[in-house]
Amino acid sequence: MGLVVDLHPVPEARATLTHANCVVSTPLGYRPLHLDLHVPAGDGPFPVVLWIHGGGWMSGSRVWTVDDRFHERLVARGYAVADVDYRLALEATYPAQQADIDAAIRWLRHHAAALRIDPGRFAALGESAGGQLAAIAGLAGAGDTAIQAVILWYGPADLANRPNPDDPFTNLALLLGGPLSERTGLARLASPTHHIHPDGPPFQLVHGTADEIVPFAEAVGFAEALRAQGVRCDVLPVEGAGHVFAGASVEVGALTEAGADFLDDVFGRSGSS
């Protein structure tokens, strides 16, 4: 039997990239963790959006995006974008991933002046598994890890109630270090629903109504729980779309722009200020 090789395409040049392969953390015994930063031209300081990729905590890369023009759109709107790395589930169990996100936030804020970004206007945009990490960053961050706005693209909110709780080989079981039935406390720790508090940052939830991986009803329930605590939560249903906006009747770029509109409102901006 021959070796099966998964050959990915040659990446395209990224015209918006200003700082590549920035080392933000060197956890002992693991690979260094990096981010790539895209900063608009000008003096700034610019608000920054942390892009946190999905992949079920088992795959993915900071260079993978759902919208092919994601960076161009946000940079054109006056936002810096930081593409963030984190360890996957077979590299380390939770909460290592959350520590990696915190390390990126801390590094960006420490170097904010040199990077021309605004330390008081940090947003996290996460998709799928990255949405769970973005939500926890927003709800649990404080001080040098604080996040002022969160956008979730079809991210799970309650990991303590997932299918197949006794299966030790689900993505979630591998993330938690054991089957969900034996890791309920850790699952709650990793669940945005269990971190809601009145001082949480504003949220925008963008979710396909036909999503069978993370049901739309989960986003609705999370939104209701946030609002019950007085936290702003805007819900943008994507009619007929499945997970990763599959089958959406709207272009994904329009959803990126909707996120920028939300952030403009939260940060009191007028397009590029």
Structure description:
With 273 residues, the protein is α/β, with parallel strands linked by helices. The chain is 29% helix and 19% strand. The protein contains eight helices and eight strands; from the N terminus they run βββαβααβαβααβαβα. Helix 2 (96-110) packs across helix 4. The chain is globular and about 55 Å long. 44% of the residues are buried.
Which fold does the CATH topology refer to? Rossmann fold
Shape by Cα distribution:
globular
- Give the name of the CATH architecture: 3-Layer(aba) Sandwich
Enumerate the spans where pLDDT stays under 50 for 5 or more consecutive residues: none
Largest sheet: 8 strands, mixed
Tally of helical segments: 8
Which class do the helix and strand fractions yield?
Answer: alpha/beta
What percentage of the residues does DSSP assign to strands (E)? 15-25%
CATH H-level homologous superfamily name: Alpha/Beta hydrolase fold, catalytic domain
Tally of domains: 1
Strand order of the largest sheet: 1-2-4-3-5-6-7-8
Classified by CATH, the class is Alpha Beta
Terminus-to-terminus distance = 59 Å
Give Rg in angstroms.
Answer: 18 Å
Mean pLDDT: 96
The total of beta strands comes to 8
Q: What string, H for helix and E for strand, traces the elements in order?
A: EEEHEHHEHEHHEHEH
What is the percent of helical residues? 25-40%
